[in-house]
Amino acid sequence: MAYLGIDIGGTTTPVCLVSKDGELLSKEAFLTNQAEGPKPCVEQILLVAESLLKQHCSSPMAIGIACGSPLDPEQGIIQAPPNLSTWIDVPIVSLVEERLKIPTYLENDANAGACAEYCFGAGVGSKNMIFLTFGTGMGAGIILNGELYRGTNFNAGEVGHMRLAPEGPVGYHKAGSFEGFCSGGGIAQLAASLYQDFRGETVLSPTPTTRDVGEAAVQGDPLAREVLALSGQFLGKGLALLIDILNPERIVIGSIFERCEEFLRPAMQEVLEQEALPSSLSCCEIMPAKLGDTVGDFAAVSVARMFHLSR
């Protein structure tokens, strides 16, 4: 018994076959070539899927598709996300189901990442969980009572848009937003801003990348650590709002938090203890994601698993 996952990205599209217990049975990836439009890529998806199923003599219980927003998961339509601008109103679910005759489900990539951590990663065993991307941007996938919460028009989880300060680094087109303070682009802006007034010694350049900041922090660089401490403070503010409103038992944070937890957590925890309801904070475990770079192998598969089991 297995699930098939298709992760349609702007650069590559991996197709994975995973057992119900989380064993990666097979994977094949190819270039999406989004400039050519959806038709060639969809055909390649179908050919690769048929090949994997034939190799493993498998008839998966369901197929999951992960893709960037905007999309309509109920209608199964991809609606030209920024990294797939030529994919205008593509009925991907019906195209896959017509050819492969297997129930197929579509979900945005942040929600799919939440499903992956919930099914196979740091969220295993929880019932109410929030997954935060904390990568290039700051998005969330929310699982309540064991089910993915999408919102009225599928916009639930856009936490990066929350304004945490009157001004600050820009994220999600909004200065002082959660994404502005807690994302790759935001941390780079924060570092460049603090550099201007920093009078100590630092290995950072006037325009460092987030990777530069993380690596310098490991080396003990005071500016880099100051930048991450400030990001950690606003991480705490954002988490306090989520904890107070949703009362989760677990918050799983990916990407930058996985790599820089030791520099982000102290300030994050201090703010949480000041801002969050003590009773809600005491029952919420905050931890780094476990799947790391393999999350893409399990994201779409987990969408298939969760929606198949809920039917």
Structural notes for this entry:
This protein has helices spanning 38-55, 92-100, 109-120, 178-181, 184-197, 210-218, 222-246, 256-275, 278-282, 295-310, and strands at 2-8, 12-19, 24-31, 62-67, 71-72, 77-78, 104-108, 129-132, 140-144, 147-149, 170-171, 174-175, 250-253, 285-288. The radius of gyration is 20 Å and the shape is globular. It has a five-stranded mixed β-sheet with strand order 3-2-1-4-7, sandwiched between helices. It starts with a strand and ends with a helix. Helix 6 packs across helix 7 and helix 7 crosses helix 8. It has two domains: 2-120 and 294-310, Nucleotidyltransferase, domain 5, CATH 3.30.420.40; 129-289, Nucleotidyltransferase, domain 5 (2-Layer Sandwich). It has ten helices and 14 strands. Helix content is 42%, strand content 20%. The protein is of the alpha/beta class and 311 residues long.
Question: How do you describe this structure in short?
Answer:
By secondary structure, the chain is an alpha/beta fold. It has a five-stranded mixed sheet, sandwiched between helices. α1 (38-55) packs parallel to α2, α5 crosses α7 (222-246) and α7 (222-246) crosses α8 (256-275).
Total domains, how many? 2
Percentage of residues in DSSP E strands:
15-25%
Instruction: Characterize the overall form.
Output: globular
Strand order of the largest sheet: 3-2-1-4-7
Biggest sheet overview: 5 strands, mixed
Alpha-carbon distance between the two ends = 17 Å
Find the count of extended strands (DSSP E, 2+ residues).
Answer: 14
Share of helix among residues?
A: 40-55%
* Rg, Å, rounded: 20 Å
User: Mean pLDDT across all residues, rounded?
Assistant: 94
